[in-house]
Amino acid sequence: MINRDEIARVLPHDVVFQDTFRTYAGPEDLRYATGKATIRPSKEIRVGSKQDFVIKFAVGGGGIEPGGSVKFALPRTWSQPQMDDPDDPGYVEGYCGAGPMEVRLSQWEPIEWYVTAHVHTRLEQGDVIRLEYRNVVVQKFPQTEWNNWRNHLEVFVSKTAGGPHRPMERESRYELEILAGPPAKLRVIVPARSKVGEETSVRLAFLDEFDNPPHEMFEGEVKLGLEPSGGEVPGAVEFTKEDGNCKEVGGLKLGKEGVFFVTAETADGTIRTRSNPTDCKTEGWKEFIYFGDTHSHTGMSDSLGTPDEFFAHAKRVAGADLIAIVDHNHYETSTVDRPWQKWMTPEQWREIGDSVKRWNEPGRFVTILGVEEAKTTMGHRNILYPNDEQPLNNQAGTEELWNFLKGKRALVVAHHSLNGVNWDDFHPEFEKVVEVYSMWGSSEYAGNPVWDKPVTGMSVQEILATGAKVGFTGGSDCHHGQPDVNSHPSRFTNIYYKGGVTAVIVPELTREAVFSAMERRRCYATTGERIVLEFTVNGHQMGEEIEAKKGEKRVVKVRALGTGAIAVIDVVKNNANAFGHKGSGEVEEFEWVDEKGERETDYYYARVTQEDGAMAWSSPIWVSVK
Ligand SMILES: [Zn+2]
Ligand SMILES: [Zn+2]
Fold it and tell me: What is the C-alpha to C-alpha distance for residues 372 and 609, in angstroms, rounded to an integer?
């Protein structure tokens, strides 16, 4: 049996859950509240819209004693409830026709907030507490399933003063439907590297205003073009309802060398866009660049949706080449229906593994099995595996993790390192890359402009300064089931950067090639855009450890193809900006010669910043004196 302190430990972030469930000895002790809760409006609410909600709770059998209370948990992704100004967003007011009542707000910022109605006289069955919650700007991502503490919409009832707050049974709780918007954007993805005369495909996906898959289906024609001219593209693509807003068409054939973009425009001209760049060479390429999200969650832990929905989104909507499913293995699986579940179950892990296996398609779409371990003393670590059948580690602790991984092939990826990550127990056998960017922002260095939270951990530069030879990855850490392309802000009120991706440089698109590229740091991170980045020192590729003679020059070469105009490309040497190249267009190439080394081992990497704020970071190259 789980004791109360254990529950508090298991559910440390959640005030409602703590207050509610620590009162019970275990599942067999849990009783549901009686009564019925409704919310209006409840259907077809659009993402990002402004709403006035009325929540009604009808008291159930046994009534509520004076001193009892009803807690309304409100989604943290909506306007923060306030009682100061009726004209401001999130104004709340409570009424009860049957007797005096007092409404109070409580919150544990930024994780959650709720409104509690304290009852001063006895309420009988059928009496109604009415809560108005006005001028509410609702979340920006679609959601129909509310059974998860990451985005509460629940009612908890205490029938007596100081009594336990009981959750309501599913049938008595309210349901709510947040729908995506109509098609407002078009995403166009082409291969980053192509060969003259060889046919490749174009992936198209409509998105709503907030980058969600739209609720309505686009029907009609999309005209494609090439910029600059010099090849063939299908002139027009017809979208029908059955296409579900996503389509992959062949027929892209480039006639000469160069950097090309595919343009797309709806027949009425309301949506116009352009693809990522494709780099075309006559002789083709020995290595290709593929993109995808290596850190994102599903409803198997604290996100939304099934693993199959996750992969369908990555493949069809995002047009991703590779994708890692990385759910939490621990308590955040908790929901109102299974509050005592501490760890991912073997059944859930098997379901994830089966889905990873089913969706893997060498040459087109590589899936990677992963799991997030946030219960180490070193901070959050993602474990990525090279195959889809692995045992599940469901124990907390750093030592336990290293013991579990002994003899296995795996990558351990620290993420949002500025937030709580330390490097005390660094394990070079597994820690070959770190996630430099995600929805949390950039952890590159403390004080960088793409991080807005207190610094409680180590930056990537501090990690490099320890001598750790780690390459860079990017991920989303999306918690609403949209890997790679996601609405933002996310299911956290305090996270609003867009998701990042990892680019891998590989001879072929297979799981082995992708995994091995990350092991060898032949990868780089971007803020989500398909930016092409080439980085060499003395002819050696990113991720390599090379030697140079004492006093030997280091020739640093950078080539970047932006998705927009490039503002600056910095070469970073031993954590300092050593050289800055000002950009003027989308294609930038330069050479910088470092006359000599400074240390026994110097390390260099490149940072691209576009005028629109998009960024990319190459993995470093380490140069040691012979
Ligand atoms: Zn995490
Ligand atoms: Zn995560």
Answer: 29
Sequence-distant (≥ 6) Cβ neighbours of residue 138 within 8 angstroms: 45, 46, 47, 48, 49, 50, 51, 75, 77, 78, 178
What is the rounded CA–CA span in Å between residue 512 and residue 366? 9
Q: For residue 25, what are its two tokens?
A: 């000895």
Residues 207 and 255 in one domain: yes
Structure tokens at 516: 């091995």
553-583: pLDDT as tens digits: 999 999 999 999 999 999 999 999 999 999 9
| Cα(413) to centroid(ligand 1), Å | 10
User: Total structural domains in the chain?
Assistant: 4
Query: Can you give the residue range of the structural domain that contains 342?
Result: 291-528
- Cα of 354 vs centre of ligand 2, distance in Å, is 21
Q: How far, in Å, is the centroid of ligand 1 from the Cα of 322?
A: 20
Polymer length in residues for the chain: 626
Query: What is the domain-level CATH number for residue 150?
Result: 2.60.40.680
Q: What CA–CA distance (Å, rounded) separates 551 from 595? A: 8
Q: How confident is the model at residue 186 (pLDDT cuts 50, 70, 90)?
A: very high
Same domain, 522 and 537: no
Task: Report how far residue 156's alpha carbon sits from residue 178's, in angstroms, rounded to the nearest whole number.
Answer: 22
**519 and 390, same structural domain?**
yes
C-alpha distance from residue 576 to each of 463, 572, 580, 621 (Å):
14, 5, 11, 14
Find the 487 Cα to ligand 2 centroid distance in Å.
Answer: 16
The single residue listed with the structure tokens 């508090």 is 8
Same domain, 544 and 605: yes
For residue 415, give the ligand nearest its CA: 1
Say yes or no: 340 and 262 in one domain.
no
Q: To which H or E segment does residue 333 belong?
A: none
pTM value is 0.94
Q: What angle do CA 169, 80, 35 make, to 5 degrees?
A: 20
Give tens-digit pLDDT for 261-299. 999 999 999 999 999 999 999 999 999 999 999 999 998
